[in-house]
Amino acid sequence: MRMKKKQKKKKSPVPLRLNLLFFLVFVMFSALILRLGVVQIVYGEDYKKEVERTENVTVSTAVPRGKIYDRYHRIVVDNTPLRTITYTRMSGSTSEERLKVAQQLAQLIDMPTEKITERDKKDFWMLLNGDRAKKKITAKDRQELKDKKIDDAEVYKRQLARITDAELQELPPAQLEVLAIKRQMDSGYTNTPQIIKNKDVTPQEYAIISENLDKLPGVDTTTDWDRNYAYDNLFRTVLGNVSSADEGLPVDRLNYYLVRDYNRNDRVGKSYIEQEYEDMLHGTKAEVKNVTDQKGNILDTIYVSKGSRGKDLILTMDMELQKRVEQIIEEELKAAKATGETMLDRAFVVMMNPKNGEILSMAGKQLVNKDGKQEVQDFALGTMTSSYAMGSAVKGATVLTGLQTGAIKPDTVLVDEPIQIKGTKPKKSWKNMGPIGIQTALQQSSNVFMFKTAMNIAGVQYVPGRSIDVKQKTFDMMRMYFSQFGLGVPTGIDLPNESSGFKGTADQPGLLLDFAIGQYDTYTPLQLAQYVSTIANGGYRIKPQIMKEIREPSTTTGEIGKVVESTEPVVLNRIDMDDSYLKVVQEGFRMVMQTPSGTGASLFMKAPYAAYKAAGKTGTAETFYDGPVDSLRATPVYNLTLIGYAPDENPEVAFSVVVPWMKNDSNAVNKKIGSRILDAYFQLKKEETAMEVSPSLYGETGTETGAEAGNQ
């Protein structure tokens, strides 16, 4: 009995433990199977999409451009926000899918159809009428395709050609809106937002699209912008233009922008100030990462960065001065035109600070006939892109060339008398002046003094009735000296497409004499302003500048941002001659404006102009009409010009006035414009000196220019 009891006590516990282990394994497997069931049945589709997710290349979206201000921080160019509907075409998107989205969009918005072309309609008709389109392919077409005499592109071209006008008329207005939308979709680039509509998008359209974005793959609502010009057409041609979303990047500069991370449909500055300062004005684009499945459908959108508006550009211009100058030009141009000046159609003014090169006003006006009515258009661009014979205004350069070459001396006296060269008509001044010195020659605008100076430069002895021998090297020498003042060479202004004028190619002796009085080579109004500035400031040719500062974007409250970059005066060259020579010419220029015998005294000695103590030079060039009216070409005309600066002892403003193609050389339109713009400048100075600007316009920034130049 004892033995049996002991045997029962020693019975092994293994079966119990094993059963417990099996039970735990069963529970774990059951939980695992349950979890797998949940994953496959409940979350299977989500995980499948997650596996198929792929991140596309980051998409960049445009931001507003920087604003443009004048020197006193008056807004010149701003941005007007536009409600915008865009479509981003993802990789793998088909034409049929885009058609479906376009049809949905057409039910929600009104889409303009004026940009649709006949080719667009034919392509769309083919897409909507597949079976009928196939019937446009003939048996001959198929055979030629089979024989490889033509390709698929040629077959498609023949199909399009066989679509009749009647068939195109089948497209109802509603379908044309679908076409207009799809046309915009198709014109976009992969992974790049394409504007579908940004003009006249109503709040209702914007709201309903925003509410239905989940049903419109690729569609988004955002804000675009349009440039707003605060002064309308004032200075408009120089401000330049920005490409539209349809234009995108200019073809001729495509690679330049693509390597700088621009999208093909980005809006960029395409001319003048907008183009020159594109890198600053463009801003940093917002970046959005679209997460898509393998078919290209957008699953999620992640905003990487919001981007920032372009930096602001502060111009050297005073837009209130520009406004008054343009008004003066328009008034005087119309008044001169009314006197029977049939060929007169334009006039120009450039005003700049002669000490630092800052452009204060660049103004040009042109009269055009539209539908039988005379209109005035902005032609400020002509101050740097069009050139003219400038006449006696260049005589200061002739005198200085003569002094530097030793052809004349400060005390030289020459006899003003008719010049008779063998085989040519007599060349003379507007009156016989007899023996005169340099300053009187400038004061009374002696042609003969300049003729004899040019002959002395050429090293020829003038004998009445005999021929003179002038070599090409004399033309080259005089042009070299003229170029030191900015005549006949680019001024260096920070704007593209500047003209340097035209140089005559013939070297007849008489043409050298014409050159000496400004009736051979041609120059721009901007070159003329740089030339007189060089004389005014003591011989420093300063680069004209239109950009004053680059600043961080202004705040929403209108506060101007911090300075990022500012311009300093740039001395292009110092006139290589004795200071006393410049003083001789400066005194001659003073006498032109401030003494009774001066050719500019009739206006500049009168109040209030006499108070400004101006110095300068009038000019009249006998030339030929070379304007837009072909029937008038080669008609003899006069170009009336004026250069000057004020005050004469410490100049703060220099200017040029050019009025080409006048029939009457006694008309004082050039002097009227010059005196009035000078009056406008000093009147505004009184009004604006109280304004807080840094640095100041009127001389402070320029007083160190000479010293700085002397150190270079």
Automatic annotation (TrEMBL):
Gene3D superfamilies found in the cross-reference section: DD-peptidase/beta-lactamase superfamily, Penicillin-binding protein 2a (Domain 2), Penicillin-binding protein, N-terminal non-catalytic domain, head sub-domain
Pathway: Cell wall biogenesis; peptidoglycan biosynthesis
InterPro entries membership: Beta-lactam/transpept, Beta-lactam/transpept-like, PBP_dimer, PBP_dimer_sf, PCN-bd_Tpept
Residue span(s) of domain Penicillin-binding protein dimerisation: 62-302
Keyword Electron transport: no
Annotated spans, Disordered: 693-712
UniProt entry keywords in alphabetical sequence: Cell membrane, Cell shape, Cell wall biogenesis/degradation, Membrane, Peptidoglycan synthesis, Transmembrane, Transmembrane helix
Recorded superkingdom: Bacteria
Compartment(s) where it occurs, according to its Swiss-Prot or TrEMBL record: Cell membrane; Membrane
Penicillin-binding protein transpeptidase domain mapped to chain residues: 348-678
Catalytic activity, reaction form: Preferential cleavage: (Ac)2-L-Lys-D-Ala-|-D-Ala. Also transpeptidation of peptidyl-alanyl moieties that are N-acyl substituents of D-alanine
Record carries keyword Membrane: yes
Leading EC class: hydrolase
Pfam assignment, any one: Transpeptidase
Biased composition (Low complexity): 699-712
Primary subcellular site in the record, as a coarse category: membrane
PANTHER family attached to this UniProt entry: PEPTIDOGLYCAN D,D-TRANSPEPTIDASE, PEPTIDOGLYCAN D,D-TRANSPEPTIDASE MRDA
Family: Belongs to the transpeptidase family.
Record's protein name: serine-type D-Ala-D-Ala carboxypeptidase
